């Protein structure tokens, strides 16, 4: 969406393949970094990013809201995955951000 490339589906069947995810995740991370590299503080506060939802409805949100949404949404999914792993009898990796910083 932030590159004005709307999607018509939420996920493709190949998006559920672990090998594809392992290959594509670093590519996606680099695409986010490339999008952010040219932004400055003023852009984060003021720049609107136009996009279309999956129904084709037009929207525009400030960069800072989009970035916070991505972080918040990722936190939501990490919690879901952690719960799924526990339900299957596995111990999930730590999710605490401070623990991540200390381990790296």
Write the layout of secondary structure elements.
Layout: H1 18-37, H2 41-46, E1 48-52, E2 58-62, H3 63-87, H4 97-103
Antiparallel strand pairs: 1-2
What does this structure look like?
Strand 1 and strand 2 form a beta hairpin. This protein has a two-stranded antiparallel sheet. The mean pLDDT is 89. It contains four helices and two strands, in the order ααββαα. 0% of the residues are buried. The chain is mainly alpha-helical.
Distance between the termini: 31 Å
In DSSP terms, counting alpha (H) and pi (I) runs of 4 or more, how many helices?
A: 4
Overall shape: it is globular
Rg, Å, rounded: 16 Å
- Along the chain, the helix and strand elements come as HHEEHH
* Main sheet summary: 2 strands, antiparallel
How many individual β-strands? Answer: 2
Summarize the structure.
With 104 residues, the protein is mainly alpha-helical. Helices cover 56% and strands 10% of the residues. It has helices spanning 18-37, 41-46, 63-87, 97-103; strands spanning 48-52, 58-62.
């Amino acid at each position: 969406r932030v590159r004005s490339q709307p999607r018509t589906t939420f996920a493709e069947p190949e998006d559920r393949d672990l090998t594809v995810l392992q290959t594509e995740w670093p590519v996606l991370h680099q695409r986010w970094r490339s999008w952010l590299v040219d932004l400055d503080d003023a852009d984060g506060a003021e720049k609107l990013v136009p996009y279309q939802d999956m129904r084709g409805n037009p929207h525009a949100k400030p960069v800072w809201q989009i970035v916070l949404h991505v972080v918040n949404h990722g936190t939501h999914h990490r919690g879901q995955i952690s719960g799924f792993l526990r339900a299957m009898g596995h111990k999930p990796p730590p999710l605490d951000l401070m623990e991540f910083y200390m381990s790296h």
